[in-house]
Design brief:
Blueprint lengths: L7 E4 L3 H13 L11 E6 L5 E8 L4 E9 L8 H15 L4 E6 L3 H6 L3 E2 L7 H4 L2 H5 L6 E6 L1
Parallel strand pairs: 4-5
Antiparallel strand pairs: 1-2, 2-3, 3-4, 5-7, 6-7
Bound molecules: coenzyme A.
Amino acid sequence: MSAPRDLELVPIGDASDVAALNAALRAAGLPEANADRVDLFKFVHPSREVAGYAGLEGEAPDILLRSFIVRDGERGAGLGAAMLASVLAEVRSRSATRVWLLTTTAAAFFSKNGFQKIERAAAPATISKTEEFASVCPSTAICMWKDL
Ligand SMILES: CC(C)(COP(=O)(O)OP(=O)(O)OC[C@H]1O[C@@H](n2cnc3c(N)ncnc32)[C@H](O)[C@@H]1OP(=O)(O)O)[C@@H](O)C(=O)NCCC(=O)NCCS
């Protein structure tokens, strides 16, 4: 495996990439992503093998991070942290100042990477109206945010 810093963030352009992402999300028990509403990305090694995926929804100043997943078999080796740094650089390049997410599975990972838990009601309307906020059950998902 390459060093995490060699990962490249690539916008997802075709249906086969979206299908592979949604298969990975289903396998992890996460909601599928709708490419019409969410900007989807894959993270690739120099070998062009896919290391993981992420999605961004919304516009500055508040952006939702979703569909964040490291390929099964590559987890626990620092790729998630490297992918997060890369996608947050993309969020900053959009002039956003806050990034939000819901998680049922990885609050400890995001806390370790600078996100804070917050009541879901504190999210701005542009975030609470996103498909993920509307569909993911409040009683199971933890809302988190990070000030950029
Ligand atoms: C969550 C995820 C993206 C983290 O990526 P990763 O490459 O495994 O994480 P890293 O190797 O960069 O970081 C590992 C650290 O985060 C912690 N961590 C990783 N996944 C975790 C999880 N699901 N819950 C809690 N902590 C987690 C590890 O304990 C480890 O901590 P340590 O260094 O103190 O041992 C990855 O495990 C994954 O894709 N999980 C399935 C999909 C998912 O749950 N995505 C989040 C959707 S909101």
